[in-house]
User: What shape does this take?
Amino acid sequence: DIQMTQSPSAMSASVGDRVTITCRASQGISNYLAWFQQKPGKVPKRLIYASSSLQSGVPSRFSGSGSGTEFTLTISSLQPEDFATYYCLQHNSYPHTFGGGTKVEIK
Amino acid sequence: EVQLVESGGGLVQPGGSLRLSCAASGFTFSSYWMHWVRQAPGKGLVWVSRINSDGSSTSYADSVKGRFTISRDNAKNTLYLQMNSLRAEDTAVYYCARDDFNYWGQGTLVTVSS
Assistant: This one.
């Protein structure tokens, strides 16, 4: 099974900060990687698909990059509505696996 | 508008069974693979199972293999998850999701407790 190691698990940041979250796959997954945002009590929302494609309607401050085993989600200028938990998902092979999540909190 | 609506969750004793349903609308259900994902209280997302478009192929997480069965009825636009031999660690909100993971249901809570 492919393990997805997501870091950091939590972070404190201020509005306007640049935020970077990383997911490392235990083996190559090409670009079969998606990023999700989840707020408390809400359904996960897809932000990025195919590693770097921005979901329609998602602000352009979100971007994704990477291929193979290392992937990054970047928020260029953190906004108040971005405080949430973020997850990566590899869907290259079964079982699909999520990263452990990154909780972005207000500093 | 794409909609996925889960139902069937509830409180069940350890060792018991439950069947979840996910009613789909707003898209051609029979053309899409579908997934179940769960989230234990306060924990992260965990992929559970998937089924292909005609129901002929399935996959499962090791933690549920042999206990859970995913199925679908394309005539009824409905996805199912039959859960047997339930354990306390199966307690979670269960979400159905379309294969692109761009559409999710609102989730249904399964609590396994005596």
Observations:
- Chain A has a mean pLDDT of 97.
